[in-house]
Write a structure and sequence with these properties.
Layout: H1 2-8, H2 10-29, H3 38-46, H4 49-57, H5 64-92, H6 98-102, H7 108-112, H8 114-117, H9 121-124, H10 127-138, H11 148-172, H12 183-190, H13 192-212, H14 217-228, E1 244-250, E2 261-262, E3 265-266, H15 269-274, E4 279-281, E5 284-285, H16 292-302, H17 312-315, H18 324-330, E6 334-339, H19 348-355, E7 359-361, E8 373-374, E9 377-378, H20 380-392, E10 398-403, H21 428-454, E11 460-466, H22 476-483, H23 490-495, E12 501-504, E13 514-516, E14 520-521, H24 525-532, E15 555-557, E16 563-565, E17 568-571, E18 574-577, H25 587-590, H26 592-611
Bound molecules: (2R)-2,3-dihydroxypropyl phosphate (GP9) and manganese (II) ion.
């Protein structure tokens, strides 16, 4: 029987075998999946089969000619998926999701490095196809279809493979499917193709959420957020009442560059001094996902988590929001965004309307010449100076978000703007990064001087915040060298998600500066700022807490389900001591209770976004 099957179905068997090997090959060479033990390696090795056997097996229902066509077609499609994912992974250290495909035109950085990321080895992935096509053409067909009974046995075997795969995964990591926020965990366990399938299903499910949601859906969420609310610290509440807020988003700026030197030269000399006159949060984490800068804008505006897949700026721009901008407008603030990119980029014009932002000064409001531009457009120094001029004419008080751009991947600036040496490592990206950060730092220095000159400084709160990481895990070796470590562990990767948050209140923080090391994240910005302005956020639907509140539990959840407290870091199913980075043995005790809280926050926030629940919020 078995032999009969192989004899009759050699083309199917060969197709499965080739695709299996190619998939595993890309797993090992195209991605950087952390494998901790032999069991995990085995799971990775067999998981392609639990997709390929059933899906390529569909060809058993076709006549032989169609069968061969189907198998060759499937091979082309699956090979394409492998290549597309390895190119995407090379840049984002992530896997493609359905919404990302629809925002492809915004993957700017990817375009510029496409050639760099295209590996000639990919061509080798088509060799089996040449062979299969040749065989399909030259070998005569055996003629008969497989008996119904044999097909049944085949599918029983396919189901067995799937179950075996899942059982092994469960053995290695109990309840692994509940860690479904982490794409790497999913790909390692259920496999790449299956991950795409799951992603497609969950996107479709998310779309249906809106239709079935009603007012009652909000009740459980309000119970959670009301119970989670932290009262403002009375010494801080309203200390900046009536002031303008000048919020500068620092492109790709991570905390690891602060107070660091390259060849004896400070990377951020201005910021190093500025934080001595400010509230500086040095354990503040970015919580963005595939939407990068736009996610950081979304988190700050709403104190909600961004989507796990794609950018909310694209997928959820039709939703109702109860943003900080709307609250500010109710308190007579004029709200604006300044960003020297086209207004349609990242769907900002549409999303800003939904968020209730009064005006958007996009590239058309700036004076841009070839001389004052670099890779991504207007240079930060120019951008900030021109923005300061534009702000001067705004009615006060205002809240302005200025989004910088020069320190963007691939971190290229003119030689004359390089104020310090490049770093020396195998990563050109990290080497250049320190010089573009240095340039950004210089631009901020000029900006503050400009605000002092044009009179906006004294009556404003100035906030600087990093939007997301600039140096991805693809540069871990160079990062380890920079940080003086042997290697970058998953614990370090979480720690590298720290971005600076600096709150500068002239006349206040220069008298009494503070470095605050309690754990916090971008989600906390909205209640923190509103409370400083004397606007209480009690009763608002938000997942952040005022960073100055005495009631607040130091806690930050990353979008992939990892979380950080002052004592622990939980990531990739492992609990680490925050202080030492050592693994904690009794992790169930220490991290266990908070896993649920982290997942609950993410899932409630997802419910709001997918169900468009804020349309029912009537306060
Ligand atoms: C695009 C700019 C950079 O306008 O905000 O976006 P990023 O690539 O960092 O998301
Ligand atoms: Mn960015």
């Amino acid at each position: 029987m078995k032999e009969q099957f192989f004899k009759k179905q050699w083309f199917l068997c060969l197709s499965i075998f080739f695709m299996w090997m190619k998939t595993y090959f890309i797993y090992k060479l195209g991605f950087n999946l952390q494998i901790d033990n032999a069991l995990q390696e085995l799971i990775l090795f067999i998981n392609p089969l639990s997709f390929l056997i059933p899906v390529l097996g569909i060809s058993l229902f076709f006549r032989e000619k169609t069968q061969r066509l189907y198998l060759i077609g499937a091979n082309v499609v699956l090979t394409g998926i492998l290549i597309a994912n390895s190119i995407f992974y090379g840049f984002y250290i992530d896997f493609i999701t359905v919404p990302v495909l629809f925002q492809a035109k915004n993957l700017g950085g990817l375009g510029s490095s496409f050639q760099e990321l295209f590996n000639p080895v990919f061509i080798a992935l088509f060799l089996d196809l040449v062979l299969l096509v040749w065989l399909a053409k030259t070998r005569t067909r055996t003629g008969k279809k497989l008996s119904a009974k044999a097909v049944k046995i085949y599918y029983a075997a396919a189901a067995g493979t799937v179950l075996f795969n899942l059982a092994l995964s469960e053995l290695d990591q109990p309840k692994f499917l509940s860690y479904s926020y982490d794409r790497e965990v999913l790909v390692k366990n259920i496999g790449l193709y299956q991950f795409h399938l799951l992603d497609g299903i969950s996107q479709t499910f998310n779309l249906t959420q809106k239709a079935v949601a009603d007012e009652n859906s909000l009740a459980t969420i309000e119970n959670y957020t009301n119970a989670d609310y932290s009262k403002p610290n009375q010494d801080m509440f309203g200390i900046a009442e009536g002031r303008n807020v000048i919020f500068v988003t620092l492109e790709s700026t991570q905390t690891f560059v602060i107070n660091e030197k390259v060849n004896g030269q400070e990377i951020t000399p201005f910021l190093n001094k500025f934080i001595q006159k400010s509230y500086y949060f040095d354990h503040f984490y970015q919580q963005t996902e595939q939407g990068k800068t736009s996610d950081s804008e979304f988190i700050v505006a709403n104190s909600l988590y961004p989507s796990l897949s794609g950018s909310v700026f694209f997928t959820k721009s039709e939703n109702a929001y109860n943003s900080m901008y709307k609250t500010l407008a109710n308190h007579d603030y004029r709200t604006s965004v300044f960003h020297a990119n086209h207004k349609k980029f990242w769907n900002r014009d549409v999303m800003y309307k939904a968020l209730g932002i009064d005006s958007f000064y996009d590239v058309s409001h700036f004076h841009v010449t070839p001389e004052n531009s670099t890779g991504w457009g207007l240079k930060d120094k120019e951008f900030l100076t021109q923005s300061a001029d534009l702000m001067k004419d705004l009615p006060q008080p205002f809240y302005s978000n200025l989004i910088t751009l020069t320190n963007h991947f691939p971190f290229q600036i003119d030689d004359k703007d390089k104020l310090i040496d490049e770093y020396d490592s195998d990563s050109e990206i990290l080497n250049r990064y320190v010089t573009t950060v240095r340039y950004e730092d210089e631009s901020l220095k000029h900006f503050i001087a400009k605000l002092k000159k044009n009179g906006l400084y004294d009556n404003s709160v100035i906030v600087f915040m990093g939007d997301h990481y600039g140096i991805s895990e693809a540069h871990n070796d160079a990062l380890a060298q920079f940080l003086g470590k042997d290697e970058i562990t998953p614990y370090d990767t979480v720690q590298l998600q720290r971005v600076p948050l600096i709150i500068h209140i002239p006349g206040v923080t220069d008298q009494d500066p503070k470095t605050i090391s309690e754990t916090g994240g971008q989600i906390d910005v909205k209640p923190t700022l509103l409370h400083l302005l004397g606007i209480d956020t009690k009763g608002m639907i938000q997942f952040g807490n005022d960073l100055f509140s005495k009631e607040r539990m130091p806690f930050a959840v990353l979008r992939n389900g990892s979380f950080i407290t002052d004592d622990y870091i939980y990531t990739k199913n492992t609990c680490y001591s925050k202080k030492t980075g050592d693994m904690i043995n009794d992790s169930e005790d220490k991290c266990g209770p908070l896993i649920e809280k982290a997942n609950q926050e993410l899932s409630l926030s997802d419910k709001i976004i997918n169900g468009d629940l804020l349309r029912f919020y009537k306060k």
